[in-house]
Amino acid sequence: MAGAGAGQRKAPTNEDGAIEDLVKARLRKLLPLSKGDQLERGGIVHRNEKTGALGHVEGAPGSEDDLAIGFTKDPCGRYVTPNRGCPPGTKPVAFYHTHGRDDSKRAEGARRAGPAGFSDEDLRIATEEQLVAFVALDDGRWLRFTPVEVPVVAGMMECTVAGVTETVPFRAQHAFDTDGQPFWQKGKTVPMNGNLLG
Ligand SMILES: [Zn+2]
Fold first, then answer.
1. pLDDT-based confidence at residue 2 (cuts at 50, 70, 90)
2. Could you tell me the distance, in angstroms and rounded to a whole number, from the CA of residue 134 to the centre of ligand 1?
3. Structural domains of the chain sorted by starting position, each given as residue range(s) with its CATH number in brackets
4. Do residues 19 and 45 make contact, with C-beta atoms less than 8 angstroms apart?
């Protein structure tokens, strides 16, 4: 019988638990690869809007600066890959990536200054994309970040690229709450149960 052991799910609902299980399984596969070649890896979890089935897509490995997960936008603010790289009829619900790099293998100046947790950039992306984020650390710990809901202004705008003007949808988020605090700093990071390398 399942008790309060190390393998217990953290997420309270069935769907969140299923996302957590999927992400954990993927990160367990990806983290050792990242520790081997020092490249980050990641992907997006999506949900089929009719059946509710979960799936995932992953891109090529990359460095911490150029790992591309599907959030890349063109100069008009449109995603370069439709639906953030997820299949038609699905909705992205979470994303995950590894921070598997072993700083001891790097030259002194190239080592991380801070802890190996989420970077500020990770938290900004999760908040902008309004997706739950997971990260795997080099020692096998993993974390979840849940962004706060951010008010959005949406409409249409004209955008000119290389002399061609198009009318495109825009979606702008408020950056700060009424107290002047950036929304991306208001989300919650929690440690997840179990060790990915165990
Ligand atoms: Zn990161």
1. very low
2. 9
3. 14-150+177-185 (3.40.140)
4. yes
